[in-house]
Amino acid sequence: MAAADPAVRRWRTCGEAWIALLRHVWSAGEAGMEDQGPIIEGPPTHFEIASLSWEDPLLLRHGERELMPCRARGRTRGRPGPEDGASGLRLRDRNGADQLRWVVGLLRARPWTTSAWISLVIPGDPSCAVPCLVALSFRIRGYRLGMTALFRSQDVVRGYLAYIPLREVQARVAEELGLPAGPLRIFVDVPHIALADAERVAGILTALPEPHAA
């Protein structure tokens, strides 16, 4: 079994990872620009989350509750999860293929194959149509199914709204393979905070002065 990568930061909960991600961009970010306006742009980051839940105390205290899911339906209000919009269509129907079903079929049919990648990018797409979530990697290690989600860019103030639905995708694939789900890994190439959200982020980090290390 491969040794753990020391470059990957590890967090127990989604809330702890989210606060650390805000702090990462806040402390190391630089002024930048996006289509929607000025941003604080942080360095690329790679981290791992062990447990994800909408009942996370940090998310309930500091997140935007009006954007969290109706628990009875498990869907977000106002903002799409990874299975809605462009990303969802490309997971379920990429050139006529259900990509999640393809992953399950590959790992079932070839037990010696312990990893599978799927892309959510279609060559030739206009730049405005390229989703922020560009790929998912599934890997069986230690009889558990891990998943890595790759984001080309992400507004980290609301990143948790994507992470928990991604865990649901991972858990569904793991269940079909008869395996428990391992950690969820996230890679963000351009993590950023909109300048319009800077005051809110400063308030959150002031209320939580100590890093939430695992």
Note the topology.
Elements: E1 9-13, H1 14-28, E2 30-34, E3 37-41, E4 45-51, H2 57-62, H3 85-92, H4 99-109, E5 115-119, E6 133-141, E7 144-151, E8 154-155, H5 160-177, E9 181-188, E10 191-194, H6 198-207
Parallel strand pairs: 1-4, 7-9, 8-10
Antiparallel strand pairs: 2-3, 3-10, 4-9, 5-6, 6-7
Helix pairs in contact: 1-6
Rg over CA atoms, rounded to whole Å, is 17 Å
- Say how many strands there are: 10
Summarize model confidence as the mean pLDDT. 84
Cα(first) to Cα(last) distance is 22 Å
Shape verdict = globular
User: Reading side by side through the largest sheet, how are the strands ordered?
Assistant: 1-4-9-7-6-5
Written description of the protein model:
The chain has helices spanning 14-28, 57-62, 85-92, 99-109, 160-177, 198-207, and strands at 9-13, 30-34, 37-41, 45-51, 115-119, 133-141, 144-151, 154-155, 181-188, 191-194. It has 214 residues and is an alpha/beta fold. It has a six-stranded mixed beta sheet with strand order 1-4-9-7-6-5. Strands 2-3-10-8 form a four-stranded mixed beta sheet, covered by helices on one side.
Task: Give a brief rundown of this model.
The chain is an alpha/beta fold. It has helices at 14-28, 57-62, 85-92, 99-109, 160-177, 198-207, and strands at residues 9-13, 30-34, 37-41, 45-51, 115-119, 133-141, 144-151, 154-155, 181-188, 191-194.
